[in-house]
Design goal:
Elements: E1 6-15, E2 18-28, E3 33-37, H1 44-51, E4 59-64, E5 67-68, H2 74-80, E6 82-85, H3 97-103, H4 112-124, H5 126-130, H6 141-153, E7 159-163, H7 171-188, E8 191-195, H8 199-205, E9 208-213, E10 216-222, H9 223-226, H10 230-235, E11 250-251, E12 254-255
Parallel strand pairs: 3-8, 3-9, 6-7, 7-8
Antiparallel strand pairs: 1-2, 1-4, 4-5, 9-10, 11-12
Length: 256
């Protein structure tokens, strides 16, 4: 069996005296889309920050393509092939769309392959080619989300971390964004670790899912199975079928 592209073992992390993540363990298989569900404050963004090197864990390991990166600097993690599409988009507002995309390739040497990669990004997001010289701060929210995904692709990632990509977008744009996420996964072979509060779409596009509750992993199953669990339907999908089959049981830490 192939080694996961990302494996997290016993990760504990927090801010100051506050512990946010408690002994978190999970993995992302090569070529898979893995979703992470959890309420606000569960620790999802903190987990992504610890994976991408923006924050250092108190204990535990983060193994990416066979290397423990838990104490590695963020730019080096990008060079290894791990990209991070942050929450709330975070463009460089005074730079043009093209300049923002070039920023994604800052760890790479300039060459003809960069122009090829830029055209690849434009093939996924044609509107960005139309807005090529426009300042990023003038783009709509959906266009900015497309741009920051494209910016991450310019680093030629092996794994992409997505933090709430549907945040603030219309249902039509959410559908468009996730269709492209699927295409990136299938066509570019990029593994995806997806933090998303829209559980419907997260479980629909992903192969496997985890539930994070109060900084602890309380459940991990194939996404199709998660979508059928009664507690997932009730708390994340907004409905219950009335059947007791597959119902998870609540315990002190959440789900058993």
């Amino acid at each position: 069996m192939a080694e996961p592209i990302l494996r997290i073992d016993g990760l504990t992390a927090g801010y100051g005296r506050m512990t946010v993540l408690h002994d978190v363990s999970m993995s992302v298989d090569q070529g898979a889309i893995v979703a992470l569900l959890g309420a606000n404050g569960a620790g999802k963004t903190t987990l992504l920050r610890n994976i991408s090197g923006l924050q250092k864990p108190r204990s535990g390991t983060v193994t990416f393509i066979g290397q423990n990166i838990a104490r590695t600097e963020p730019h080096r993690i990008v060079q290894l092939g791990l990209g991070h599409v942050p929450e709330a988009r975070q463009p460089f507002p005074q730079l043009s769309v093209r300049e923002n995309l070039w920023m994604g390739a800052f760890t790479r040497s300039r060459g003809p392959e960069l122009q090829s990669d830029l055209e690849m990004v434009y093939s996924y997001f044609p509107i960005l080619k139309e807005r090529d010289s426009q300042k990023a701060g003038l783009l709509s929210g959906g266009e900015q989300q497309m741009m920051v995904i494209g910016r991450a692709l310019m680093a030629r990632p092996k794994l992409l971390l997505f933090d709430e990509p549907s945040l603030g977008l219309s249902p039509r744009l959410v559908k468009t964004i996730f269709e492209i996420v699927r295409r990136i996964n299938k066509e570019q072979g990029v593994s995806i670790f997806l933090v998303e509060q829209n559980a419907h779409v997260a479980l629909e596009v992903s192969d496997f899912g985890y539930v994070l509750e109060s900084g602890r992993v309380v459940l991990g199953r194939p996404s199709a199975e998660l979508a059928e669990l009664e507690d997932i339907k009730t708390f994340y999908l907004g409905h219950a079928s009335g059947s007791g089959e597959g119902k998870t049981q609540q315990s002190e830490g959440g789900y058993k």
